[in-house]
Amino acid sequence: MTALPVSAPDLALQALNLRHAFGETEVLHGLSLQVGRGEVVAVTGPSGSGKSTLLHLLGGLDRPNAGEVSWGGVRIDTLSTQARAQRRAQAVGLVFQHHYLLPDLDVLGNLMVPGMLLRRDLRGRARELLAAVGLSGRERAMPEQLSGGERQRVALARALVARPAILLADEPTGSLDTANAHAVATLLIELAKQDDSGVLLVTHDEALATRADRRLHLLDGALTDN
Question: Matching PROSITE patterns, A to Z (predicted)?
Fold first, then answer.
């Protein structure tokens, strides 16, 4: 089990003694971790080590068989599915290898989705983020009109539009070429730190992992410092 170095008031994310199994196979064995506000933590590990399972549990998309998950000091693993989804909209930004933009909405419309869920008008914040990711003037472009790198930048801006406590990123540069991967990684880290959001990256990208404040390695259901 890795050390837990961050004090509770500064935590964006905390997981304590997570256990999870599929059938008779236990994938996570009492795993614990913390991510502080403004901290970037990278999790690496071989395929099949449980990285995606871990991210789903940390994002509240699944419940652990045992253990606790908290976002910004609020425990969420005991909440109902509806309450957990509402809290996730407030506290968590999700970025995946695929952008998952809604094809029938333009760029600005995609960034407005989190605000709709929260019943907040985030139009001004959305435009600020589009400028920050170099997409001013593309608000009315449809996803099919964007390059792969541009779509991923829109997805990043959407994940940050509600100023989440924690940003969870699953191979966020995995589908991009080297130049776009570097640009998206730089934006992800810089924008999250500006908002004092914690970042947990699950990645095979060594160049991205080396830019984190801390690196952890997942193997055989346990995390170790790397």
Answer: ABC_TRANSPORTER_1 (PS00211), ABC_TRANSPORTER_2 (PS50893)
